[in-house]
Amino acid sequence: MARRAGTTVRALRFYESQGLLPAQRSANGYREYGEDHVRLVTEIRTLQAVGLSLDDTRPFVECLRAGNTAGDACPASIDVYRRKLAEVDACLDRLTAVRADLVRKLAGALARQPGPCHAEPSC
């Protein structure tokens, strides 16, 4: 299962402990996973790769486990996208303000410098 899903056994156990990956047990106690489980793990990994926390993936996993064809077919998943996008936008706004402040500070520092690099940010 780990190999098919492109992850580690440790990650699978962690997802199971967090309630994201239900593990059915065979008579001998081994965990049994099907293609639906591979799909859940793939969804979790894909969402984490774009910056969602493990907790953020819950609505997507629940949506898939409810029988939907996509993890973002449910309103709760859309809400996560919207919230995360607002967080990213706020972060970009803060970074843009920091960049503008740094550009102003650099320009001021360069204006006080003697020599050929006067007011040349690339020097």
Automatic annotation (TrEMBL):
Keyword check for DNA-binding: yes
Keyword field: DNA-binding, Transcription, Transcription regulation
Superkingdom of origin: Bacteria
Keyword Cell cycle: no
GO MF: DNA binding; DNA-binding transcription factor activity
Pfam families: MerR_1 (PF13411)
Domain HTH merR-type: 1-63
Entries under InterPro entries matching the protein: DNA-bd_dom_put_sf, MerR-type_HTH_dom, MerR_fam
Protein name per UniProt: MerR family transcriptional regulator
Lineage: Bacteria, Bacillati, Actinomycetota, Actinomycetes, Pseudonocardiales
